[in-house]
Design goal:
The chain is an alpha+beta fold and about 375 residues long. The chain has a domain of about 200 residues: Ribosomal Protein S5, domain 2 (2-Layer Sandwich), CATH 3.30.230.10. It contains 11 helices and 12 strands. The strands form 2 sheets. Strands 1, 2, 3, 4, 5, 6, 7 and 12 form an 8-stranded mixed β-sheet that branches. Helix 8 runs antiparallel to helix 9. The protein is globular. About 50% of the residues are buried. The chain binds alpha-D-galactopyranose. The site of alpha-D-galactopyranose (GLA) has 10 residues, from helix 5.
Length: about 375
């Protein structure tokens, strides 16, 4: 990837100057879905696939962007004096949003850049290609201009840009998992105060397999914002009977005690998911630490059921992938991962069953849905780096 970028860079942007190359991973969430904006826990890990970037400083304030994934789009030109979201700016709204967010924080970007990206995260897959672009951009700005920001800050800046520049009201999980990624470890993050702990992933004789539905998220972003609003409303209703700051502060028992304060059946189900998913995430990490992989898998399956029935963010494509995975031999657990409404599932599959899993689930999916899914056995990788 790096070699291809270094070859292409002068062809696209011209010769001269120092070209530096960077990487930030994608992420997959093992459990703890739609809990991060409810003050709950999440348990994601960074992947070895991600976004590669090559950059060079300019003498003026121009920004020139090029993606090797969208070569037909050619070079997109902008300027540090025009950091506004624009529909026709496509993916460049992500790096531009991060530049804007740095400036909002008082960091002045001293000069423009030529900026090339090349990613190997499947597009629209729900493995956080946009957060990966955000974090790689933040990391580049830090390294190029010496801005004093921590990796946690990079995550927060990425999230801020996504919320306020790109209009998706996402939580902190994706950017945090990417900025703080660590090889072979997942991150147990408490989103209420950003305290975290790394947990080594020992899957014994099993692997993490991602099944990509190839259903694009489409209206996903607006549905995402809608779920978030439903949870906020449920929280306000609960606050009339119990002094909590977030749904993540409730145990299952406390929820059962107070749930009647939530006046709609739909909002009750949304809140129930947020509360129990948080509890499952805490239990899942305990199970993993105690080497109880089967229990971890059982909690993954329960997470999917709750996302399907209570939170209603799955859809026929993700449900088919998961239900077929549950039928397959050697599957320890399987669930949708990420925002939902399309995207991917994550499964833990015994090594010697992986091929059969891909074949069997792939065939059933094609028959039912009418197009193919893609499968990847993935490795847990580290965070952003200059390469
Ligand atoms: C998306 C968001 C995250 C998180 C997940 C659902 O990936 O970006 O903040 O809310 O959905 O768990």
């Amino acid at each position: 990837m790096k070699e291809k970028m270094l070859k292409k860079f002068p062809e696209i942007f011209g010769q001269g100057g120092e070209i530096r190359t960077f990487f930030a991973p994608g992420r997959v969430n093992l459990i703890g879905e739609h809990t991060d904006y409810n003050g709950g826990h999440v348990f994601p890990c960074a992947l070895t696939i991600g976004t590669y970037a090559a950059v060079r400083k300019r003498e003026d304030r121009q920004l020139r962007f090029y993606s090797l994934n969208f070569e037909k789009n050619g070079v997109y030109q902008s300027s540090l004096d025009d950091l506004k979201p624009k529909k026709e700016a496509g993916w460049t709204n992500y790096p531009k949003g991060v530049m804007w967010a740095f400036e909002e924080r008082g960091f002045q970007i001293p000069c423009g850049m030529d900026f090339m990206l090349y990613g190997n995260i499947p597009n629209g897959s729900g493995l956080s290609s946009s957060a990966s672009v955000e974090v790689v951009t933040g990391y580049i700005l830090r390294e190029l201009f010496g801005f004093d920001v921590s990796l946690t800050d990079l995550a927060l800046i990425g999230q801020y840009s996504e919320n306020h520049f790109n209009g998706v009201n996402c939580g902190i999980m994706d950017q945090f998992a990417i900025a703080m990624g660590n090889k072979d470890q997942a991150i147990f993050l408490d989103t209420s105060d950003l305290s975290y702990e790394y947990a080594p992933i020992h899957l014994r004789d099993a692997k993490i397999v991602i099944s990509c539905s190839n259903k694009k998220r489409g209206l996903g972003d607006s549905k995402y914002n809608e779920r978030r609003a439903e949870c906020e409303e449920a929280l306000q209703e609960l606050q009339t009977v119990v002094p909590i700051q977030s749904l993540g502060q409730l145990t299952g028992e406390a929820f059962e005690q107070y749930k009647d304060a939530i006046k709609s059946e739909v909002r009750q189900r949304r809140a129930r998911h947020a509360v129990y998913e948080n509890q499952r995430t805490i239990q899942a990490v305990e199970a993993l630490k105690a080497d109880q992989l089967e229990e971890f898998g059982r909690l993954m399956n329960a997470s999917h059921v709750s996302l399907r029935d209570d939170y209603e963010v799955t859809g026929i494509e993700l449900d088919t992938l998961v239900e077929e995975a549950w039928k397959a031999e050697g599957v320890i657990g399987s669930r949708m991962t990420g925002a939902g409404f399309g995207g991917c599932t994550v499964s833990i599959v015994k090594n010697d069953r992986v091929d059969q899993f891909m074949e069997q689930v792939g065939r059933a999916y094609r028959e039912k849905i009418g197009y193919s899914a893609d499968f990847y056995a993935v490795e847990i990788g580290g965070g952003p780096a200059e390469i």
